[in-house]
Amino acid sequence: MRILFIGDVFGRTGRDLVRAGIPVLTSRYAIDAVIANVENAASGAGITRETGDALLKCGVDVMTTGNHVWDRREALTYLGAEPRLLRPLNMASAAPGRGAFVARLADGRPIGVINAMGRVFMPPVDNPFEAVAAAVDRLSRECRVIVVDIHAEATAEKIAMGWHLDGRVAAVLGTHTHVQTADARVLPGGTAYVTDVGMTGPHDSIIGMERAGVLSRFVTGLPTRMEPASENPRLQAVVIDADERTGLARDIVRLDWSEKDLAGARRAGDDEQPL
Ligand code: FE2
């Protein structure tokens, strides 16, 4: 099973990249399932029903989030109503929504997705290591292939999660920093891992926002208004090739595509490429 995991989709720029990118990448890499982190999909902060439904329509099968999940009030009802939208599972149990889900592909094959949030330099949540291990045990009864989104700031915490789950899930993928890391690999036990998938959005920015406002906040220490940027759109993602018999990964590759790359691939046709 080939899985495309799209890194933090940021604002309109990110949503446009998802719409343009899914058909191109699906034919090029023979993708079976698409997962995207969407916690910044609505104007760079949070998720709304309109933006979420539009992403599902583009071919996203499961959406994950993180600390920005509640930035839009309507996410409270949207999360309760849309099982394909996850919030970190180690939040309070009273919070709406869920942090783990088994999706069915068009041909009926199951894929499990777990969304957790780290605790280092992040808002307080329950222990993600215990919560994820319990969810893996639960989901394993329904599906072999499981992908974990660990939404966290600290590289060490994400790397620790990779080793914690090595040999038990197909992939442990870091999100949240919006900066793609160069450490994608399959760990010795067979779990694909990357510390951060990166950002699908405007890269001539400060992690998605227009530079001037953020820079002035750093320079002057005064509060400023921040607006989503739009320059240099890039789609950052990983593709995982998972063995459905073992539930483990054969390979993981990092993608970092500009709008021009996507348009060029579309013009060149649909030749399937090896990973
Ligand atoms: Fe985040």
Describe this structure in words.
Helix 1 (11-29) runs parallel beside helix 7. The strands form 2 sheets. Strands 1, 2, 3, 4, 11, 12 and 13 form a 7-stranded mixed β-sheet that branches. The chain has a single domain (2-267), classed as Purple Acid Phosphatase, chain A, domain 2. 47% of the residues are buried. It is globular. The chain contains 7 helices and 13 strands. It has helices spanning 11-29, 49-57, 75-81, 128-140, 155-165, 211-220, 259-268, and strands at 2-6, 8-9, 33-37, 62-64, 100-104, 110-117, 146-151, 171-175, 185-186, 192-194, 199-202, 233-243, 248-258. The site of fe (ii) ion has 6 residues, from loops.
